[in-house]
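Good morning N.,

You mentioned wanting to compare the apo and holo forms, so I went ahead and generated the holo version with coenzyme A. This is what I fed in:
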Amino acid sequence: MSDTRPPAPPAPAEPHGELVIRTIAMPADTNANGDIFGGWLLSQMDLGGAIYARNLARSRVTTVAIDAMTFITPVYVGDIVSCHATLLKVGRTSMRIAVEAWAQRTKGGELARVTEGVFTYVAIDEAGKPWPVHR
Ligand SMILES: CC(C)(COP(=O)(O)OP(=O)(O)OC[C@H]1O[C@@H](n2cnc3c(N)ncnc32)[C@H](O)[C@@H]1OP(=O)(O)O)[C@@H](O)C(=O)NCCC(=O)NCCS
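and this is what came out, ligand included:
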């Protein structure tokens, strides 16, 4: 039977969204294959999204959900990794933010989109209780 699904849209050629994190992937962050561990990348994306959310809410924030994470291609030791955030939706206390991670390769310097995901943050008060984003 032939595949009747429409072709996937072409991947964007460059990052979009606000640059929120830029760092270098180090040997200590590798997995058993010698590539960069997915959990490290996820934590960079979570930190980047939290920076964006905190600036928007002007209060502490906490991550309540991570959806639609896709690991597209590996990150290698020495790659310059950058995370870019785009606001998708603001609720009463929550913010839904798309985060893309890109790697600039050591060899050749080309850019590759390595991961994408959607992070939801909740603005919280000093007691850790939800707190309106727009006050
Ligand atoms: C985030 C937290 C403060 C929310 O508290 P809560 O009592 O569940 O709050 P509410 O039910 O009022 O929900 C608050 C907002 O979060 C949203 N929300 C709650 N759970 C959600 C989920 N699983 N996915 C998406 N949004 C969610 C609600 O829709 C609401 O959004 P809105 O105010 O914009 O309409 C609480 O769940 C918490 O502290 N969780 C642990 C967070 C944490 O430790 N994160 C780090 C993980 S390592």
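The radius of gyration is 17 Å.

Happy to go through it together on a call whenever suits you.

Best,
F.
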